[in-house]
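Lecture 7 notes: from sequence to structure.
We start with the chain below.
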Amino acid sequence: MEESVASVEAGSVTESALWEAWLRGEPPAAVPIIDAHAHLGRLAEFHIPGGGRAEDLLREMDRLGIRCCLSAPFAAWAGELGEGHDEIARIAKLYPGRFYGYCVYNPAFGVERSLHELESRLACPEFVGIKIAPSTHGFAADDPDYAPMWDFANRRGLVVLTHSWRGSAEDDPRRFESIARRYPRVRILLGHSGGDVQGMVSAARVASEAENIYLELASSHTPLGILEWMVATVGAERILFGSDMPFLDPRWKLGQVLGARIPDAAKEKILGENARRLFGLEV
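Predicted structure tokens for the same chain:
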């Protein structure tokens, strides 16, 4: 893998108009930047600078040229479903076009209740997809209690953002191979692309075999050349920018994409075009 990553030389960062604009402090993309993986609020076991307030995220988004972010609020992800979904709906209405919500499906609350949340929330324009966290919630992604969610998403052709991490008993990237075949209309977005370097390689190889699997970039693991290798393996059309803010600093991944040795057209797809197309956003 190391040799294949090092050998990718698709374009030069020194020839990138987007990179030069970024260095000048100008908006770096001709298309709006969309952060496909963000959160709001607090989470007890993690340090969240500023408490994850929408106003703080918005200030950072404006500074970096991020047009909007797609968020799974911690209150729904690791707490009370209804309360968390109410909160992201309120914020999305307060800042129209800047925040959109994922509806969290958590089998721990019971299938009937979780499905009701999907049906009611995804009827509203503030919600654009589904978020699952198999390892956090303690259910494998192909557990029978997830099947109703996959059926629901398949019928509607929805995007499901899932946590994915190499070696996880619940959401290792390879676990999604059979799911992608069973539910071909679901667009499965692998959050973190499997996490560490080996996970990214695994996620990219899984995605190369399944056209309905997409890769999302949020991770603190960023080895030199990995994005170029992922583009060569999967194609820029199936990679989405995501930051995991307020956990992680969005500049980390913006710099990775803008400084990559790939054509500017590929960078624009990753930064916003792909998310706009997948989620049907008008931004």
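Points to note: Strands lie at 33-38, 66-71, 99-104, 127-132, 159-163, 187-191, 213-216, 239-240. The chain has 13 helices and eight strands.
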